[in-house]
């Protein structure tokens, strides 16, 4: 799998990870299938699992399932703080770490910038103490890209997470370049437009030239467009389906499209 370097540490991170919004907010009878999702990710070389207290049971489900996997410590665990107030944030983060069964969290992010001025100093303290390895900020709408960039330039977090897809390309205007110039890693949410991209291409064929870039299905088509941008560190599509997890992982293999091919990809979608 293609990997990107985390500038603040030199650590390599595979470009495909896993989101858990809705997909991991499930009852225990769904655990076997989700365990197979994580196995597909591990076999394919993916590491990052992204969650949040906002995602219902997902943190607990991640902790329960990974505890029974031999590769439990090979994953890169990321969650968020999603509340207001210092003590409330500390309590929430401690609860998240307990649910995910992590004595040390790889990454904690401030979810949608909620009370970020309060939480960021606390995250820095925890990083200095060794309780977490990296800190970050997130949002999921174009309207907050300017605010994310402003905070990035002022505060220099390790990670920034935001929305970006082949049909939602506002991040290409400034945000991706800003992250690259500042040495800040990027996590990409909503890579499939919450399913709207698949609705657009339902029963539509891939272009014939897609096979030259190992685009064997629409998910690899959409993901390859994103990871072809060198400023993208990791994309986190959510899924509860092992086959979809396999398809997502395959997007990080083979050739990546250059700028001319990316334009063809966009134009092809517009013409459907």
From TrEMBL:
Domain NADP-dependent oxidoreductase residue range list: 16-262
Superkingdom as given in the UniProt entry: Bacteria
Matching CDD domains: AKR_PA4992-like
PANTHER family from the UniProt entry: D-THREO-ALDOSE 1-DEHYDROGENASE, NADP-DEPENDENT OXIDOREDUCTASE DOMAIN-CONTAINING PROTEIN
Designated name of the protein: Aldo/keto reductase
């Amino acid at each position: 799998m293609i990997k990107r370097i985390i500038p603040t540490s030199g650590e390599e991170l595979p470009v495909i990870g896993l989101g858990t919004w809705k997909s991991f907010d499930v009852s225990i009878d769904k655990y076997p299938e989700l365990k197979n999702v994580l196995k597909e990710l591990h076999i394919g070389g993916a590491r990052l699992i992204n969650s949040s207290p906002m995602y219902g049971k997902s943190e607990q489900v991640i902790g329960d399932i990974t505890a029974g996997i031999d590769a439990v410590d090979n994953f890169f665990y990321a969650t968020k703080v999603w509340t207001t107030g210092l003590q409330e944030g500390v309590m929430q983060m401690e609860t998240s770490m307990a649910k995910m069964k992590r004595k040390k969290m790889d990454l904690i992010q401030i979810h949608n910038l909620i009370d970020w001025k309060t939480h960021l100093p606390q995250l820095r303290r925890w990083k200095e103490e060794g309780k977490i390895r990296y800190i970050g900020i997130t949002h999921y709408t174009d309207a907050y890209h300017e605010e994310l960039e402003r905070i990035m330039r002022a505060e220099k977090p390790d990670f920034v997470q935001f929305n970006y897809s082949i049909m939602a390309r506002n991040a290409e205007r400034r945000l991706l370049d800003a992250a690259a110039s500042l040495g800040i890693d990027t996590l990409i949410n909503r890579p499939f437009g919450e399913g709207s991209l698949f609705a657009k291409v339902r029963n539509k064929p891939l272009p014939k030239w897609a096979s030259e870039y190992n685009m064997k299905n629409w998910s690899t088509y959409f993901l390859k467009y994103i990871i072809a941008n060198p400023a993208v560190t990791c994309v986190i599509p959510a899924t509860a389906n092992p086959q979809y997890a396999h398809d997502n992982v395959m997007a990080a293999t083979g050739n990546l499209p250059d700028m001319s091919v990316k334009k063809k990809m966009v134009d092809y979608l517009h013409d459907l």
